[in-house]
Amino acid sequence: MTASHTPVPPLRAVTVEVADPDLLLALADPRHPLVALRRGDGIIGLGERHRLTFSGPDRLRAAAEAWRRIAADAVVDDAVHRPGTGLVALGSFAFADDSAEQSVLVVPEVVVGRHDGVSWVTSITPADAEPGLVGAALLPDPRPLGARPRATLAAASLSREEFTAVVGRAVAAIREGRVEKVVIARDAVASIPPDADRRALLRDLADRYPDCLTFAVDGLVGASPETLVSVHAGEATARVLAGSTARGTGAADDAAAAARLATSTKDLDEHAFAVHSVLDALRPHVRGVSASELPFTLKLPNLWHLATDVEMQLDAAASALDIVAALHPTAAVAGSPTDAALALIAELEPFDRGRYAGPVGWIDQDGDGEWVIALRCARIDDDGQLTAYAGAGIVADSDPDSELAETRMKFRPVADALR
Predict the structure, then answer these.
(1) CA dist 132 to 1, 89, 108, 129, 173, Å?
(2) Of 87, 190, 200, 277, which residue is the least packed, with the fewest Cβ within 10 Å?
């Protein structure tokens, strides 16, 4: 494990209520947005008070400990008391222990948020600094969102034929007994103008997928349907997604697609692997945990998912990042058994996933927060190089062509945003 950041001096966070700023995205940085939004509510960060970076197998545990120290030293004056008020950091973590891409926690200088009709602004300063601007005076002028950049995704590390061949090798490994399930991903690339307004992509994702968490952290943008964990006052919930199918073209066809998914042995087995993985990982960190016996079908604009909601009561010392560290990587994005699936992914995928399929979200001084799995996402570099990712869960009876079609469905949120 490595952590690269200068020691963080004690911080002061002051949160006050302000008038509704309307479109939160209009306040975000066009080139470097820092965003976590759902159904128009959420938070955006402005500036960087501190940036903490982590790598290696202990990156999440190191981040949890670093944040615990920062929160313990902080002075917080929060008159609003809503999710996302007070001292907040937004973060994004690499999928693999040996990833070359750094994991990051960013403490903004200013946070603007809204929750259930209440809006606020938080200033985050060194605790010993002279008082500065507070309240509405901290709000930047809204900037109109620019035009969405137009581009077409193209296969990157694996062609379609190469991907189906890799899926075939994964199926063979499963039938040999090496793993029960493995998630195989592929990447696709496009180029957008370096000065393109990335908020326009986020606006499209938020509008098309309002029930997903639309996020932007350190160049990673997306709209994830899968909540890794949401924590508030010691109570936590998680949503497990595994097993999916395309939406139907009409009402009857759509209903039939959902019914087929709900009764598919292949998809139900894949989902069960994912749920059991989550429950096993959570038990050391919670006082109680429960999940429904059968999954439900979750409708998204482009596909159906099998979903299970998990509810838990955390141990007193556990934070959202502690739970994230315990859960990652879930069977939904790695496979089962986890270690064997990760080894097979490293063998079969010819690219570094970076922060795709890793945790992304936010945490506050109390350890509360919301973290999702970075799915339906893309990394955008400063030069405009865009890399999108999509994966499919492979089990013993997987058909390579069907799994290729599943990845095409999962590329659609990013691909459509670029059209």
Answers:
(1) 37, 20, 15, 8, 61
(2) 200
What local confidence, expressed as pLDDT, does residue 65 receive? 95
Which bin fits 171, alpha (ψ -120 to 50), beta or left (φ > 0)?
A: alpha
Cα(126)–Cα(297) distance, integer angstroms: 47
Half-sphere exposure of 40 (CA within 13 A, CB side): 8
Please identify every residue annotated as catalytic: 181, 226
Give just the sign of the alpha carbon dihedral 199, 356, 276, 370.
negative
pTM, 2 dp: 0.88
Query: Is there a contact between 90 and 34 (Cβ–Cβ < 8 Å)?
Result: yes
Q: Which amino acid is at 65?
A: E
Q: At 11, list the tokens.
A: 């911080």
Query: Averaged in consecutive runs of 10 residues, what is the pLDDT profile of the chain (419 residues)?
Result: 70 95 95 96 97 97 96 96 97 98 97 96 92 79 94 97 98 95 96 96 96 96 91 82 82 91 87 80 79 84 82 82 90 88 97 98 96 97 97 91 94 95
Q: How far is CA 52 from CA 72, 317, 377, in A?
A: 16, 22, 22
Q: Where does 238-282 have alpha helices with state H?
A: 251-263, 265-282
CA within 13 Å, CB half, 250: 2
Token pair listed for 136: 């509405």
76 with 87: CB under 8 angstroms? yes
- What are the tokens at 22? 């309307």
53, exposed or middle or buried, with CB in 10 Å at 0-12, 13-18, 19+?
middle
pLDDT for the residue numbered 280: 79
Tokens of 162: 């190469």
- At 35 the pLDDT is 98
Cα(358)–Cα(375) distance, integer angstroms: 8
Look at the domain 2-135+149-417 and name its fold: Anthranilate synthase (3.60.120)
What does the DSSP 8-state code read for residue 20?
-
**Of 377, 276, 293, nearest to 331 (Cα)?**
276
